[in-house]
UniProtKB/TrEMBL annotation, chains A, B:
The lineage of its organism: Bacteria, Bacillati, Actinomycetota, Actinomycetes, Propionibacteriales. It comes from Aeromicrobium ginsengisoli. GO terms for cellular component: cytoplasm. GO terms for biological process: intracellular phosphate ion homeostasis; negative regulation of phosphate metabolic process; phosphate ion transport. This is Phosphate-specific transport system accessory protein PhoU. Homodimer.
Length: 213, 213
């Protein structure tokens, strides 16, 4: 009975880790659509979100079924509850990718990001990608030591977002209000993607160490 | 045993509904701090967030304990899981109030909102307040009929946010980039507060009807 429980739990965690890969691609594609003003990629990110939602719901149903049929307690219970919450994090990261893709789409055929800010957005997307990857490995291996690095990456994300805001608000900003509004929101979306990765990692840390970080 | 279960579940739901009241006050106070540039109120919202976090954690622990000791199945299980998720919604609404209060604080002694946009922000805050109130009553009474009104309020929130963005991007905008960036983010924060209220209501609707709206 217990062996079967862990087998099913492992399968659920595997699927969650796979979904993390899908979300990573959504973030990367949304960024590509944004920087290259590529309408086709933007549409594919927007349309693809329903796959992330569906995958989330399927994994969620299986977790609830396992909860109901095997009635885990203590750490096993906490792990299943943590899994349900991480699914919410992943779903939100998918939604945020759609927001990025929609900003991209609204400004086509131009890019919503002025050329000199491409490196900043590229860096934010790279940090987000690395953060989701770290979170995914922390979930897969329950390696809480890797969580420290993720907090560093989160600091880097904050730094990049502040740089971005400083650019928009500096005297050398000559693009007017509309691109500034887009970029302020884009900065917020990437920051939130990173926050959700941190939130996933913290749930694992809490499971393993019993400490809220 | 079952009676005791429902008694404990009712107590948890009561506490969740009470917490909803605290979150409503945080949103209202943050708005007051923003429009009146009141530093003291802004600080109290920022400091008060840890109370919301602590209350969330206490209710969460009790829900997990009930889950572990009484091992509910079927609808009872789903209701407890829904409760855990609604706690996450409430915690996020608290965080978003802090974001509003921090924008207010950053622009003091001025208000971050130009006078002619006070009515729009006041309206967004009023809709958010009414949405949290609706969500709270839907949770307390499991009255799914009220959920329809909440979706209307959500449409109203979207409309207000679009109005706000149009103001920022119109030719008559003479305040420059910085207030526009603040207002774009503020609009996003109020919209997200409303989204979390909708998310709470949808969880109740799903529990009662078994239908994802």
């Amino acid at each position: 009975m217990r062996d079967q429980y862990y087998e099913q739990l492992d399968a659920i965690v595997d699927d969650l880790v796979n979904l993390t890969g899908t979300v990573r691609r959504a973030v990367a594609d949304a960024t590509k659509a944004l920087l290259e003003a590529d309408a086709q990629i933007a549409e594919s990110v927007i349309a693809g979100d329903k796959d992330i939602d569906e995958a989330t719901e399927i994994i969620e149903e299986r977790a609830l079924l396992l909860l109901a049929t095997q009635q885990p307690v203590a750490t096993d219970l906490r792990q299943l509850v943590a899994t349900l919450r991480m699914l919410t994090d992943l779903q939100r990261m998918g939604d945020l990718s759609v927001h990025v893709a929609k900003v991209a789409r609204r400004r086509m055929p131009d890019s919503a990001v002025p050329e000199h800010l491409h490196p900043t957005i590229t860096a934010m997307a790279a940090v987000a990608d690395s953060m989701i990857d770290s979170a995914s490995r922390i979930v897969a291996d329950r390696n809480v030591d890797a969580a420290g690095q993720l907090e560093n990456e989160d600091d880097e994300m904050d730094r990049l977002r502040k740089d971005l805001l400083r650019s928009l608000l500096g005297d050398s900003w000559t693009y007017g209000v509309e691109p500034a509004v887009d970029l302020a929101l884009l900065g917020r979306y990437y920051e939130r993607i990173g926050d959700h990765a941190v939130s996933m990692a913290r749930r694992v840390v809490y499971l393993v160490t019993g400490q809220l970080s």
